[in-house]
Amino acid sequence: MKKNCKKAARHVIKKKFVTRLKISGACQFLGITRQTWHQYWARVAQVNERHQQVLSFVIQERALQPRLGVRKLHHLMNQVGVDYVPGRDKLFALLREHRLLVPVKRAISPRKAIIGVG
Description:
Blueprint: H1 3-14, H2 23-30, H3 34-64, H4 70-80, H5 88-97
């Protein structure tokens, strides 16, 4: 079974869209063991907890400095010594997913040429 199909099947089983389906039967259908199933969901819970810690740090820092960007946040997390510091690209993706990216300010340039200066 392909990875995307397994992921979709796991989601269906976890959300209990199918009634009277037991984990053991679902695992047999997916071709995995029950141990793998439980390890997977424990890992998902752990990752979600880490992401919540990162998001709370970002929200806390942005309360003080509202326009603090991702790169500077990443640098700050490394300096402060946060338990879990994701990579820069992962941090971008996480903040994009939760709509916490700072919108880019458009540079203001003169609209008309200035004549007679210089």
